[in-house]
Amino acid sequence: MRQAMQKRNKQIAGFSLVELMVAMVISLFLSAGLFAMFTMSATNVTTTSQFNQLQENGRIALALIERDVSQLGFMGDMTGTDFVLGANTQIPAGIVPNDCVGAGANNATLPNNQPSHFRRLWGYESGVSADFFACLNNVNSGTDVLQIKRLIGPATVTPNVNTRYYMAATPNQAIFFVGTPVPPVLANARFWVYQHHIYYIADDGDIPVLRRRTLSVNNGMANEDQLVEGIENFRVLYGFDNDGDNTADSFMPVQNVTNLMWDNELFQRLVALRIFVLVRATEADNSYTNNTVYRLGDKAIAATGDNFRRKVVSTTVVLENPVLIR
């Protein structure tokens, strides 16, 4: 009986102090390893998520701008022809409210009667160029602004949306008008939606955002769309053809584009645009320090040791429509 009790006591005896300490040390090493793996996994998830976000935001920003730029100069049956008020062009009575008027003698939303080509395209670098849009007061310094005017295809049979501007066009005549159930009478004309866009970058709190001003009848150019978050910089290089083969021989920043070049009054003609976008993560990652220098065409931008990941995306757009016929 006594021997049986002793045997049972031995069977139910706990760990010794040494065994407990060894077990605790092993547990600590296992816990430390698991924590390191968890931290590494969390860091990898953050890194992968931010890189995916940068790629996607950059792709969307370029797609939006590229779609507009690729159709630059499209004016229906008047493509390549200048607008001359009183001769081949009529505009509605009154002016566009809250208009954004750019540099040059003829650079409002609609053509005017100044003896100068109507500008379908114009741009500047905020805080650097001498000229700017007075309608924009919150553009981030050192970022480009791009203005595009064109028609939206295909032609419409019923130009009756009263918040839109339209253009009736034949090869010889153009009439700009406000959407109405009764469009203007112009023999053999087709009707097109008229569009005026301005792309620029301004902050929303501490997040830079690609924005766009758009045209409407009642509000003019005061309509603002927030397009893509995290777009920190935007650079455009303008490609000019110098020898008449319709291929860009040189690309230059906006500071080098003269008034004569904007108005297509020289032999040089605008035939392509190179667009660079610097995308920044919307949230900082304190485990990452960014000291990279990013190049946007002719311009270098340093990250200055902050905790935001960035990526440059770019594209070259060949213009399909002549701004003005040679």
Automatic annotation (TrEMBL):
<dbReference type="Pfam" id="PF16074">
    <property type="entry name" value="PilW"/>
</dbReference>
<keyword id="KW-0812">Transmembrane</keyword>
<dbReference type="Pfam" id="PF07963">
    <property type="entry name" value="N_methyl"/>
</dbReference>
<feature type="transmembrane region" description="Helical">
    <location>
        <begin position="12"/>
        <end position="38"/>
    </location>
</feature>
<dbReference type="InterPro" id="IPR012902">
    <property type="entry name" value="N_methyl_site"/>
</dbReference>
<dbReference type="GO" id="GO:0043683">
    <property type="term" value="P:type IV pilus assembly"/>
</dbReference>
<keyword id="KW-1133">Transmembrane helix</keyword>
<dbReference type="InterPro" id="IPR032092">
    <property type="entry name" value="PilW"/>
</dbReference>
<protein>
    <submittedName>
        <fullName>Prepilin-type N-terminal cleavage/methylation domain-containing protein</fullName>
    </submittedName>
</protein>
<keyword id="KW-0472">Membrane</keyword>
